[in-house]
Amino acid sequence: MTRQPVLLLRRGFFICQRHAFTMQTLDSQLNLDCADALRRVEWLGDEALDRLRFGVIGFDATGVIRRYNACESSFSGLRPKNVIGRALFTDVAQCMNNYLIAQRFQDAWADCMALDATIDYVLTWRMRPTKVQMRLLCSPDRAMSYLLLRHH
């Protein structure tokens, strides 16, 4: 029988069989191109999420926004309290309600498949056209899906 790594949170430290790291290490090493971005962004608390230098929108399988960081709020001009609890693709970011973004998430959820794709896109809803690089992340074993956005 193979022993599974143990992961515990104690006083701000994650401890597993091979390494220990702090939440600060976790968010300082997270970037849009990080191989394990979905796992890392999930583990971040709201304060750490707000320290990231790119936008993060976390939403559930129904498309309702559950997490929205300060960087994305700054770029979009939308305050987290005004978007959390609202439908991402129909209420908040209708310019993403298309086959390039919303449909990819819907297909991944319907097929119980992981999604990890990076696209260049132009946001147009409620703002002047803004070029972004967007990473679409979801996994069938996760409750939340994420959009990571780097504004150009």
State the major sheet.
Answer: 5 strands, antiparallel
Number of helices: 7
Low-confidence stretches: 1-27
Q: Let me know the number of strands.
A: 8
Assembly status? single chain
Strand order of the largest sheet: 5-4-8-7-6
Describe what you observe in this structure.
The chain has helices at 23-28, 37-43, 46-51, 70-76, 80-83, 88-92, 102-110; strands at 8-10, 13-15, 20-22, 55-59, 65-68, 115-123, 130-138, 145-151. It is α+β, with helices and mostly antiparallel strands. Strand 2 (13-15) and strand 3 form a beta hairpin. The termini are far apart. Residues 1-27 have low confidence and may be disordered.
TL;DR of this structure?
By secondary structure, the chain is α+β, with helices and mostly antiparallel strands.
Name the descriptors.
single chain; 152 residues; alpha+beta; five-stranded antiparallel beta sheet; three-stranded antiparallel beta sheet; 7 helices; 8 strands; 29% helix
Secondary structure: elements and pairs:
Elements lengths: L7 E3 L2 E3 L4 E3 H6 L8 H7 L2 H6 L3 E5 L5 E4 L1 H7 L3 H4 L4 H5 L9 H9 L4 E9 L6 E9 L6 E7 L1
Antiparallel strand pairs: 1-2, 2-3, 4-5, 4-8, 6-7, 7-8
